[in-house]
Amino acid sequence: MRQTISLGESDDPPDSLYQEKKILIAEPEKKRGSFLVAASVTRAIAKGEDEAIASSPTARAEIISDISRCFELWQEFSPKGSLFDTWEFRLAFYHGYGYELYFLLLKNEKENLAILPLWYENNNWYDKNKKRYTWFGSDWQEEVRFFTKDPKYIPILLSAAPSPLYLNAIAADSIEPIKKAVGIKEDQQKYILHLGKFKNHEDFLMTLKKNKRRDLRKDRNRILRQNPEIIINNFTDLKELINVSKKRFQEKGEDTDWEDPRRIKTFEEVIRLGGRSYETRMITVKINGKVAGVDLVCLYNKTYYAVKCGYDVKNFSGIGNFMNVFEIDDAISLGMEKIDFLQNNYEWKDRWFEAVPLFEYEK
């Protein structure tokens, strides 16, 4: 059943995105179906926003939870520029976690204007008390961009969004229309390596200072002296990746997301859904028959995504750096233009790679 909620003149506006800047809009807390967006604005949130609303006097926000309809809207709005823009990669997380979908669609009588693809997370593995709306696909997604036909709709979309709301890893170019908003702050950076000028890993090493270059070569040579066996695309080694990773975190006295069976299901689905929009690749290194390291990689739009890894650092010192150097050569051989080492520094990425700023928004 679809419920329509009209916005009367006496309705109070919610908290504004901006201090002393308000937009009158229906508060969608716990609502389903659709509701009208007010056409009156006391002060524009962003340049051009008042014109956007004035030209759409019957603007309506609609909540979509049907997976098929969500897919259609995703295909309409996604820029499909990165791995995280692909439906299949997000769908893998949906299959793993099964959270309730909450796609917030902004539209007028003529067309769809913007969409905020969310789900309601109410069983967080790290914090059972955490209940919030976040990106469809969880906060694991990165360099996320707002899905809108015009950036001036972003403030309206966020004003209509439910709370508590947590949107992380937002791309810098997508945050521009709301960069002064209350709740915007810097998130952890991600790290990339552009490959355009490199013919092999040695070209990359020559861009580093002498000590850094020496350390990477030392670790690479240490592993090479042990005659490693490198196996490509044995995807059953996901189990080995998980086991090695769990053991590594246990040695450090830390928890790992692999303790959650839903995370395992998710990356099984990432592999299963590969080939539709992105490609998957798995690299396994064995030494004397023992697994030293496993990496799961996704390939999309000339980018090589280092998605998940598991290394037996205790028995094979240097295996992490060996894999990084190997994957530079691997990415070049596959015609990739960039390696995306993803978010979080882990106390080493900033030594070798370019940092890319990301942002987060909460309300």
Describe the structure.
Helix content is 29%, strand content 26%. The protein has 363 residues and is α+β, with helices and mostly antiparallel strands. It folds into two domains: 4-187, Aminopeptidase; 191-344, Gcn5-related N-acetyltransferase (GNAT) (Aminopeptidase, 3-Layer(aba) Sandwich). A hairpin with a 2-residue loop joins strand 12 (279-287) and strand 13 (290-300). Helix 3 packs antiparallel against helix 9 and helix 7 (210-224) packs across helix 10 (319-333). Mean pLDDT is 86; it is low at 1-29 and 38-56.
What's the overall geometry?
globular
Oligomer: single chain
Mean pLDDT: 86
Would you identify the CATH architecture of the largest domain? 3-Layer(aba) Sandwich
Helix content: 25-40%
- Please indicate the percent range of residues in DSSP E strands (runs of 2 or more): 25-35%
Give the number of helices: 11
Low-confidence stretches: 1-29, 38-56
Summarize the helix and strand pattern as letters: EEHEHHEEEEHEHEEHHEHHEEEHEHEE
